[in-house]
Amino acid sequence: MHTVVVGTSGVTASDVLAVARGGARIELSAEAVAALAAAREIVDALAAKPDPVYGVSTGFGALATRHISPELRAQLQRNIVRSHAAGMGPRVEREVVRALMFLRLKTVCSGHTGVRPEVAQTMADVLNAGITPVVHEYGSLGCSGDLAPLSHCALTLMGEGEAEGPDGRVRPAGELLAEHGIRPVELREKEGLALLNGTDGMLGMLVMALADLDTLYKSADVTAALTLEALLGSDKVLAPELHAIRPHPGQGASAANMLAVLKGSGLTGHHQDDAPRVQDAYSVRCAPQVAGAGRDTMAHARLVADRELASAVDNPVVLPGGTSQAFGSGGGRVESNGNFHGAPVAYVLDFLAIAAADLGSIAERRTDRLLDKNRSHGLPPFLADDAGVDSGLMIAQYTQAALVSELKRLAVPASADSIPSSAMQEDHVSMGWSAARKLRTAVDNLTRVIAIELYAATRAIELREGLTPAPATQAVIDAVRAAGVAGPGPDRFLAPDLAAADAFVRGGELVAAVEKVTGPLQ
C-alpha cells in the first residue's frame, strides 16, 4: 500500500487524494517528530509561567480574558473539544473526513502548534486503522477554522463520540480505538485548541473538487466536440492561430482538445444545402472560450490550494525567538494571529462553483440544439425513433435543465455572507465550509449534465447515416455502448441509460476512451 510521509513543510494535493480516497498509510518523518517535541518544550515553558498565554492558560474566544489555573487546564482542553463538537445534520462523506484529519495532522507536524508527538502519532494511527469520526454537515463558519467538524475528529482521538470502523459500521469511538490497540489521548495545554483551529475541511474539499473538475473539463471538451460533429459544425474555429491571438491558456487547451477529438471526422463542415451556415451557434463556436475560462479559474484555485497545503494554520502559533512578551525556553514564543480565516479558500471555492454552473449551462444549450429539429440540421425531433409515438430524449433534457438550474443556485457565493459569532469577538467569518459543501454538490451535478450531453451527442452521431465520425468519436461510441448505454431506437426506460452514462463520465472512462486515440488531453 502507498505510504505518505508527513514532514514539516506541508503536503501535496496528490498526498491528500492518496489518503482521502486511496487509503494510503501515513508515517511521521523524524524531522516532524523533532519539530513537534521542540514546539512542545516552548508551550510547556510558557505553561509554567504566571503570565496568561492565549490557548495555553486562558479561555477561548470571547472568554479569553479568564486566566486558567494549572489544575484546570487539562479539563479546559477536554471541554473545548466536547463543547465544540456541536455539529448537526447529515454525516459528511468519509473521504472528506479523512482529508480533514490528514490536513490537520499536516499542520500539527509543522511544529507551530505545540502538540506533543504522541498526539500526532495517534492521529496517524486512527487514519491508518480506517477509523473515520462521525462529522456532521453543519457547524463550521469557516473562521477560527472548521471548528465543529474538527472537534468531532478530536473527540474520536479522546475515545469519545461515534466513529465509523473500517467495516462501515458506526460505533462508539472508544470501542474502535481499543480494538485497534490505540490509546485515547489525554490532552494537555494548547492541544485541544490546536486540533480544532484550521481550514482543513474546506481545503480538503477544494483539493478533491479540483481533481474531479480536471476530469470533467476534459470530458466537456470531448462532449462539445461530439456535439459539433453531430450538428455538422465547422472545426475551423478551433485552429490554433485563432486562439493564439487571445492567449488565455485554458482556451487554447480546450480548443486543442476538441481539435484532437475531431481529427479525421467525416461530419465536420458538411453544411446542408437548404440551410447554409456561415458560422455555428455560440454554444458550439464559443465552447473553448467558456471551458477555457473555467480551466484558468481552476489554475488560480490550484495556486491557492498549493499555498494552503504548504501553510501551518493555527491560532495561536508557536514561533522561535522574537519580541513577544510570551517567551518560552530558548526564546520561543506563542503568538495570536488571524491565519485561520478561510477567505482565500472560500473565494476560490465560490469561483469554481460559478465556472461549473456556466460549463453546465453551455452544455445544456448544446444538448437542446441537438433535440430541436429546427436547429439540429436534419436530425429527427428529440432524436426519437418515431417522433410522436416516441418522445426520444425530450425528458432527458428536462432533467439536464433542472440540474443546470440547481447549478446556478449553487453559484451564489457563500463567501459574501458573514454572521458574527462568539459574542462579537469573531465578528467576520468566511463561510468557506459552506462554499466547499455546495461546490461538491455542483461538481456532482455537472457530471450528470455532461453525461446527458454525451448520451445525446453519441445518439445523434449514429443517426448521421452515411457519414463517418472521427476515430476518437467512434472510440467513445464503442466504449459507451460497451458500458451499457443504449444507442438509437424506440423509447425505453431511460433512467438506467442516463445512470450508466453518468458512471462512464464520473469514472473517467470517457476521457480514457478518447486518449487511446488522441494521446493525453490537455
From TrEMBL:
The modification 2,3-didehydroalanine (Ser) is found at S144. There is a cross-link at C143-G145 (5-imidazolinone (Ala-Gly)). It catalyses: L-histidine = trans-urocanate + NH4(+). Pathway: Amino-acid degradation; L-histidine degradation into L-glutamate; N-formimidoyl-L-glutamate from L-histidine: step 1/3. GO terms for molecular function: histidine ammonia-lyase activity. Its EC number is 4.3.1.3. Keywords: Cytoplasm, Histidine metabolism, Lyase. The keyword Repeat does not apply. It is found in: Cytoplasm. Its main location: cytoplasm. It is an enzyme of class 4 (lyase). SUPFAM superfamilies: L-aspartase-like. Contains an active site 4-methylidene-imidazol-5-one (MIO), which is formed autocatalytically by cyclization and dehydration of residues Cys-Ser-Gly. CDD domains: PAL-HAL (cd00332). The keyword Metal-binding does not apply. InterPro entries: Aromatic_Lyase, Fumarase/histidase_N, HutH, L-Aspartase-like, Phe/His_NH3-lyase_AS. Belongs to the PAL/histidase family. HAMAP family: His_ammonia_lyase. This is Histidine ammonia-lyase. It comes from Streptomyces achromogenes. The gene is hutH.
